[in-house]
Write a structure and sequence with these properties.
homohexamer, alpha+beta, four-stranded antiparallel β-sheet, 4 strands
C-alpha cells in the first residue's frame, strides 16, 4: 500500500458545546495544521499516488471554506459541534467529494482511502480515516 | 475510524539485559516522549473520541508511576527487560486498565483501540498497538 | 551566556485591524505554541538559569489570562491590535513583571533577559526579546 | 502489534518524467528524511522488535546505494521514474531482501512487515507498506 | 527587538568543489527548508515587523530563482561553490535587495536585520545573519 | 555572521542535588538531543563555516564520553551538579578544547563562537553560548 501526505493549515474561531469542554465552551480559536494522506494500492501511470500539485490545491480549496472564519457563524455548520474530530471528518468527506468529482484528475478516482489529521497544538491531534 | 492523540513524557534511568544491547547494558537513561492514541469507530455523545482532559490525566497518571525513577529498582518491574517496546506495551496495558475501570468516563468504554508510541530520540521510536 | 526555554500554548480568537491583514480582519483564531527563553550570564546557586518548575508555572499563569478567550472582548486589550508580535511583547512584559515581583524565586531576579516566541503555524512565528 | 522506527536521510539529484511533474521535470534534487518502521506481532528473545543497531546499519546500507548520487545516471534505475513513492518501495524492497538474507540477524526473520516513509520537505511525504 | 520568521523550501541539484566534501563532490541534491527571519527594533504602523504576506511572497520569489534547478548549470552562480552557507548568504542578500527596492512595502525599509537559515536534513543546517 | 548546526544525542542517567529539583533528586535519566552551532564571521577557503564531517565527529567524540552512562558515577564529574545548563557548558568547553587542538582542522581555528543546546524533552531545553 502506498500513501502520500501533504500539509496545510487553517486558523479558525469557534466554541464547543458540552460541559465536558470546560473553558473551550467559550469563544476561542485554533490553528489546525492539517495532514491529508491519500492511499492507494497501486501507483497510477505517472508512478505516483496522486498528482501532488492537484492534491495540494484540493486541500487548500477545502480549507479555504473554513480558514479565517468563526465557525460558530458558518451557515453550513449550524448545529454542528466543531470538535477537532468532527472537523477532520468534514475535511475528509469534502476531499472525497472532490476526488469523486474529478478535481484531482481521472487517475485520482483510483485512490483507496483518505486519512486527515488535525494537529491543534504540540500536544494534541485528532484524525479521521475513511475509504473511497 | 477516528483517533485522538495526546503527548506527554517521562525521564527514567534503566539498563538493558542482553549482549545485543552493547553500551545500553550499562545504567543510562532516556527521555521518552509518549504519544497515546485513542481509536474509536464512532464519536461519543460529545462528538469526540474521548474527553481529552481525562485522557491527558490518565496518561500522566500512568507515566507518573515510572517518571523520575530508576526502572532497575522498581519492584513492579523486577525481571522485566525494560526495552522501549516493553515500556510501550506496559503503558498501553495500564491505560487499558484505567479505561475499563471508568477513569476516562463511561463513554470511554466505547473506545476500540490504543496505540502508544515512545520516541526515545530524534532518530528512534517504538510503538505498541492493541484492541480494547 | 546561558539560557533555558520552556514550551506551552494557548488557543485564542481575535481579529486584526488594518487592510494589510486581508482575511485576518475577520474574527478567526490561532493556537500559539509559546517558547519562553530565560537568559543569564552566570548560573544561580542550584546551577540552573531558573527554577524550571517555577518558570513553567509563571508561563502558564501568564498564558491563562489569554487562553480560551476572544481577545477582541478582553477589557485589558481594548484598543490593542493583537498581532503575534504584540502578543509576544505582552507575554514577555508580563513575565518580566512576575520575575521582578519574585514569583520565580529570589534567584530569578538575577536573570538578564527574556525571549518569547509564538509559533502560529508550521510556517510562521514572531518573537520579542528584552532585557530584565 | 509492535513496531520500531529508525530515521536516516539521503541527498539525491534526479528528474521526473511526465508533464504532470511541471518544473520537477528539470534536473533538481531532494533530501529525503527516511523513516523505516519494522513491525512484529510478538517480541523476540531480547524483548525487541529488531536489533536496532543492525536495523540502523541496514537502512544506512540501503540508502548508501542512492545517497549523494544523480539517480538519472544510476544503471540500476535505468527506465525508472524515481518518484518519492517509487523510492519508498525500492528502499522497502531492498530492506526486505536484507532481512530475508539474515543481515539483521536470525530473529529479524520473524518480522511481519515494513513501512518506509520519505519526507521530502516540511510539507510532503510518501510511504510504502508491505508484508514480509 | 522583534522578529518574524516565515518558512518555505526549495529542491535543488548541485555538486560541491573541494576534497573536504567527500561524496558531496558528486552531483547530488537537497531539499532546503528555508526560515527567513526579519528583525526590527520597533513595530510599524500596523503593529507588525513586516507584512507577512509580502514577506512570504518575497521569499518565494527569491527561492523560485533556484528551485527545481541544477545549480551547477545556473549562469548567475558560475564559479560559486554552492555550499549551504553560501546559499544562505545569497538568499539573504537577494531579500535585502528586494526590501531596499520596496517590494515588501515602504514600512519594510525600517527593518533592521535578516537571518536566513537553511535546514538541509533533520541533522544539519546553516545560517547567515546580516544588517539592513 | 555565519553559523552551522549539527545534531546528535546522548542517553544518560543522573540525579540532581538541591530541594528545588523535587523528584529529579532521584536517580532518573534523560535523552539529550544536542544541537552544536559553530559561528564564524567569514567563511573558510572551502566556503564553509567548518568541515561538517569533522564537526559531526567532534560532537560525537565529546558526547561519547557521557553517552550510555550514569553521570553520578563518572569520576570526571565528581562534585558536579549535572543540570542541563552545566552539561551544555561542559560540552561546549570540550568542543572548544578540540577546536583549539586542531581536531576540526586548521581552518576551524578561525571559528568565532559556539552555541550548544540540549533538548531534554518536547517542552524544555537549555543552552550555553561562548566565544572561541
Amino acid at each position: 500500500m502506498f500513501s502520500v501526505t501533504v500539509r496545510d493549515h487553517m486558523m479558525i474561531a469557534h466554541s464547543l458545546r458540552g460541559a465536558a469542554f470546560g473553558p473551550a465552551q467559550r469563544l476561542h480559536g485554533a490553528t489546525y495544521v492539517v495532514d491529508a494522506t491519500f492511499r492507494r494500492a497501486e501507483l497510477d501511470e505517472n508512478d505516483v499516488v496522486v498528482d501532488i500539485a492537484r492534491a495540494t490545491d484540493a486541500v487548500r480549496d477545502v480549507l479555504s471554506e473554513l480558514d479565517y472564519r468563526n465557525l460558530d457563524d458558518e451557515p453550513a455548520l449550524a448545529g454542528t459541534n466543531t470538535t477537532t474530530e468532527v472537523l477532520a471528518r468534514l475535511i475528509a468527506d469534502r476531499l472525497a467529494d472532490r476526488i469523486r468529482a474529478g478535481a484531482l484528475g481521472d487517475a485520482a478516482r483510483g485512490l483507496d482511502g483518505l486519512l486527515v489529521t488535525l494537529h491543534e497544538s504540540h500536544l494534541a491531534s485528532a484524525a479521521y480515516e475513511r475509504g473511497l
